[in-house]
Amino acid sequence: MLSVSIIIPTLNEADYLARTLRCLEQLDPPAADIIIVDGGSVDDTLAIAQVPEVTVLSAPQARRSMQMNLGAQAASGEVLCFLHADTLVPDDLIAVIQAVLSNSQVICGAFISVMTGLKTICWGVTLQNFLKTYWGPLFFRPHLFFGKGMRLFFGDQVIFCRQQPFWDCGGFDADMPIMEESDFCQRITHYGRMRLVNRVVQASDRRVAHLGALKANAIYLTVGLLWAFGVSATRLKRLYAEIR
What we know:
- By secondary structure, the chain is of the alpha/beta class.
- The protein has a single domain (4-237), classed as Spore Coat Polysaccharide Biosynthesis Protein SpsA, Chain A.
- Helix content is 41%, strand content 21%.
- The chain has eleven helices and eight strands.
- Strands 3-2-1-4-7-6-8-5 form an eight-stranded mixed β-sheet, sandwiched between helices.
- Helix 5 (123-140) packs across helix 6 (142-148) and helix 5 packs parallel to helix 10 (213-228).
- 43% of the residues are buried.
- This is 4,4'-diaponeurosporenoate glycosyltransferase.
């Protein structure tokens, strides 16, 4: 079976990382390795990360695209799985990934992300995130949607891909401060099929809780549309402040 490396970029994730790591301890089968790439946390993130079976690396700056590339360089697995520090995965994550990639034509996939809080599920945001997997490439990259089977995945969907196509397409663009996953999907789709897995992962609703559902959805939609029309990631970053 294919070996799977899990890569987690972090920056001040002390409120969420311990729970995520406890979740990963339950994986059956286990990951080949778990690599945390920190971008300069000043809270207890690094202390929490000091657990057995976890490798901790330091990135020269807090940029998720760069951090994920550094983790990929250190990974031993044939498959790379990129996980946000505030996202919970099922205990059969590795088995699901192996089953999806048992089809040699599939080189990249992701899960359905359900955005949850302590007491609620953000159904509106969850639905929008699910639909944009399809409508994004359908409306703005139709030649890739129909010709290559492109799907648009985002970080909270737990993206996974074969390691060789990851490097063949150039990995994540380390200069992009935002929308690096969308850019990546656009490039890796030329190397094989992409698949949205019919299983869920749970992502934190902290941004929605902070901004409110209406404003959060408006920002997500605006950023996605502007990127599709060619607005630079540097400019888009001004609309998407970090929330911890």
